[in-house]
Design brief:
Elements lengths: L1 H32 L6 E13 L5 E11 L5 E13 L4 E14 L11 E18 L14 E18 L4 E13 L1 E8 L15 E8 L5 E15 L3
Antiparallel strand pairs: 1-2, 1-10, 2-3, 3-4, 4-5, 5-6, 6-7, 7-10, 8-9
């Protein structure tokens, strides 16, 4: 009887071990088959250069973002930018962007050290802008102009970029997007003391004129953004 009991216990533990091994192999197979990119959450810092197509001065800013990846080929980016522009020493423009973008990886989408993943990016943002002149100016035969003008608008943007993975968790991203505003645009001109328009780099005692104008189709500015992103969580696990 004792021998039968020992043989029965041995067979029982053997079957349990085989079952646990098979279950473990199945989980490993499922984990291997599942794309590792899905569910990744990243935090990042960014620096942005803003180039207007109708005005001759660039803006430089900084901001933050996070990314949440719903699938291997798609990623989402949620960002905040603050950009400041000096206007020939005559005034300044302050811009804030709060928005989101969708990133599509048409080619390589693999997340690993040394990988380069090009993407197409497009999205939407809310835009706050304020333009301030350093001095008041009354042009000849006209009423005094505003010293400061600000407005809220909405905008859409689209462009291309690429990630370069320094490690499996850290990447550098460079993108270029054209942002088109839906709403009024703050337009600036430089006038001399006679009220005549001059170039932005012309010497002399010039003045800044600020006008709020209805935005035209495709009128906006180019955004060049460099960011560093770190993966801090994986919601697929």
């Amino acid at each position: 009887m004792k021998k039968v009991f020992l043989i029965t216990c041995s067979l029982f533990f053997t079957f349990c071990a085989i079952g646990q091994k098979g279950e473990g192999d199945q989980k490993k197979k499922e984990k291997k088959d599942k794309p590792v990119e899905v569910g990744q959450f990243q935090l990042g810092m960014r620096s942005t250069v803003s180039l207007f197509d109708h005005q001759a001065y660039p803006g430089l800013g900084y901001g933050a973002q996070f990314r949440l990846r719903p699938s291997k080929r798609l990623n989402t980016e949620w960002y905040l930018d603050y950009i400041k522009t000096d206007i020939s020493g005559l005034g300044q423009r302050e811009t804030a962007h709060i928005g989101w973008s969708v990133m599509f990886y048409p080619f390589n989408a693999e997340v690993k050290k040394g990988s380069i993943t090009p993407y197409i990016i497009g999205g939407h943002c809310f835009d706050y802008a304020k333009v301030t002149s350093n001095s008041y100016f009354v042009p000849l035969s006209t009423s005094p102009i505003q010293n400061s003008v600000k407005r809220w608008s909405t905008a859409v943007q689209m462009g291309m970029g690429a990630n370069f993975y320094i490690s499996d968790k850290v990447d550098l991203s460079l993108s270029g997007q054209y942002m088109s505003h839906i709403g009024n645009e703050l337009h600036v001109d430089v006038l001399n003391h006679h009220g005549e328009e001059v170039g932005y780099d012309d010497a002399g005692e010039n003045h800044l004129i600020i006008n709020e104008e209805p935005s035209k189709v495709l009128e906006g500015h180019l955004l060049l953004t460099l960011s560093m992103n770190i993966r801090i969580a994986d919601f697929s696990k």
